[in-house]
Amino acid sequence: xxxxxxxxxxxxxxxxxxxxxxxxxxxxxxxxxxxxxxxxxxxxxxxxxxxxxxxxxxxxxxxxxxxxxxxxxxxxxxxxxxxxxxxxxxxxxxxxxxxxxxxxxxxxxxxxxxxxxxxxxxxxxxxxxxxxxxxxxxxxxxxxxxxxxxxxxxxxxxxxxxxxxxxxxxxxxxxxxxxxxxxxxxxxxxxxxxxxxxxxxxxxxxxxxxxxxxxxxxxxxxxxxxxxxxxxxxxxxxxxxxxxxxxxxxxxxxxxxxxxxxxxxxxxxxxxxxxxxxxxxxxxxxxxxxxxxxxxxxxxxxxxxxxxxxxxxxxxxxxxxxxxxxxxxxxxxxxxxxxxxxxxxxxxxxxxxxxxxxxxxxxxxxxxxxxxxxxxxxxxxxxxxxxxxxxxxxxxxxxxxxxxxxxxxxxxxxxxxxxxxxxxxxxxxxxxxxxxxxxxxxxxxxxxxxxxxxxxxxxxxxxxxxxxxxxxxxxxxxxxxxxxxxxxxxxxxxxxxxxxxxxxxxxxxxxxxxxxxxxxxxxxxxxxxxxxxxxxxxxxxxxxxxxxxxxxxxxxxxxxxxxxxxxxxxxxxxxxxxxxxxxxxxxxxxxxxxxxxxxxxxxxxxxxxxxxxxxxxxxxxxxxxxxxxxxxxxxxxxxxxxxxxxxxxxxxxxx
Length: 655
Prior knowledge:
alpha+beta; Rossmann fold; Ribosomal Protein S5, domain 2; single chain; 5-stranded mixed sheet; 4 domains; Heat Shock Protein 90; 9-stranded mixed sheet; 21 helices
């Protein structure tokens, strides 16, 4: 029953930075490792904003041994004079939501910050923070604990400031330690993730120097790219075969809301699309209006060019947006006033400004039309690539239609191998993709048929890294999987029709099992990426060992876990092998395959939601993922051999 005494005293007003600590996910997306690194991104982007405003040339990041991090830039320095509120402008910036210089276009024409939330949100979610500012030859500092000032803004001696700041004419240094009460995981920053973050921003802001000092490893890394996003496209295609030089387009549309536009694109000989989009150095992983403008302009320019080119005129009638994606690598980067930019949420994954769509469409259409007219050989190579993609798409459609017609005639709406679940709500349904009929039989018997469906695979599937859609839909195992998922593939793909919101790859813990997992990951990443983006793809973690001692039994999932568990057992050296407890000998069973487990064991260890361990498949760095799939699954052998030789020491062999 609801409380009938609901009154004014039940209304709680969150003061200052309380809303951030109360609902951190609203401001940084999550409280896991992704949210942790979002904190650093907010502070780094404030420094990058200074560079975009042409006021900074260096950004330095220190990863300290005590889980603290420092960011130093040579920008103008946060103002320290008195604000209209009576406080120092520095204190207002660091402790008040929706405060900062990005509201006035006179200070920043483009900024990654949104609504002045960034720095103050980081402050609220940090155990402690220290900000040092250098302005007009003087140094100022203020310190905070969980967002609250512990000192006033005061002038300090130069010797107390970070070394870089002493060499700069002006700048800002921010040191903070994430609050362990807020973040679920380890609060130490990942050197790999930080490198990716800084490298990406170095590509976006040509000429800006990034310096990373990881004191935990005594390691220094520097990033500097004179070519900006042109260099980024070259990097994305470095393990592919480009068909032409990088096409670079830049312009600015002066309207009610001015928008700066940069686009770089290049086609390669692969079948996959790789497009990155950014708004004010923020990676918009879910795209948005700027990406829509890019796609609209590209298909318009190509169709118009085809109409004027007799050799390819017939193709223009059948051309679709899907045909333009094959082998396309592109970067779209828009810059807008922080006062006007609109994201879908504080996490800034999707841009919403219609002005960005208009600006990208107009500028790209004009510049790309000019480029193709002036470079007919490049235009010819692009059109030939699109022509082949269109022919393959039409062949795939014919093959797919034949499959659908055959299924309809035979009355088969779902593949015969599929043991479907009773649940009709995708949110409550899961599909296990299982290696082999033996494991499939155990999984079908051991599952909870109410919400768990089972689809056995007959063996290794087609490597889809270098396969077009017509070959994919003709491959029996993949055809069954596509039909079972229900969302289609290619141009007719409808993610909202996905029949399961947990798709779980369950293979043997051996080399063949790992290979099948890799083949499936390649298929999903290249052809059904929305399943990964939606967080619907998982990898099951069956146990490696069953350890019995006396009447007790324990499942363990790694060799390290096995060794640690064995150390906990009392020893009796009189027993064979020297490993036993007072209750009897220790028996260790190594599971080479899922088929070795009976249905009850498979349910208990790998399928029961109360006990199982699942690894969710996510893509944090799209360019790195693209590189790995191209290296491991592509045609070129030398890069794969080099990768195996480099990482061979990480592999282990169980005998």
